[in-house]
């Protein structure tokens, strides 16, 4: 089974065991619906425990989530650094949409099939989502993840074909 990370527990919020999570998902509303299941992953012990969501709200970079069975700040403090996961399910995606985890590591090629580098990170800027591409012995470069630059994404082959403008590289 494959999991997606929604963020990392950074602290408790309030006295009822609400969890403050540094969010790495754009889909908090969908992922933290009341009754849905999330998994708290302990990166030290490599353990994962399932919880049901009771409530959710978002503010800035943070998600505030109340989970069934976590009822005090002391329990949350023991979980600082845990990651919040959900089961990866491709049916959640719209056409021509991708999980960031599927884009990381993809080989980036130009329209003549020349390899330019590999996706190091998917970064969100106010204007758009952008790929950070790592190259051998050269500085990273950025590619806006919009149709003018992204010509083809093949997740199965782990390749992304881009249109290169002068001065881009």
Describe the structure.
The structure is a single chain. With about 170 residues, this protein is mostly beta strands. It has 2 domains: about 5-90, Beta Barrel (Elongation Factor Tu (Ef-tu), domain 3), CATH 2.40.30; about 100-160, SH3 type barrels (Roll), CATH 2.30.30. It is built from 3 helices and 12 strands, in the order E-E-H-E-E-E-H-E-H-E-E-E-E-E-E. It has helices at about 30, 75-80, 100-105; strands at about 5-15, 20-25, 35-40, 45-60, 60-65, 85, 105-110, 115-125, 130-135, 140-145, 150-155, 160. The strands form 2 sheets. A 6-stranded antiparallel barrel has the order 1-2-5-4-3-6. A 6-stranded mixed sheet has the order 10-9-8-7-12-11. A hairpin with a 4-residue loop joins strand 7 (about 105-110) and strand 8. The chain starts with a strand and ends in a 7-residue tail after the last strand. The relative contact order is 0.16. The model has no long low-confidence stretch (mean pLDDT about 95).
In short:
This protein has 2 domains: 3-89, RimM (Elongation Factor Tu (Ef-tu), domain 3); 100-162, SH3 type barrels. 8% of the residues lie in helices and 50% in strands. It has 3 helices and 12 strands.
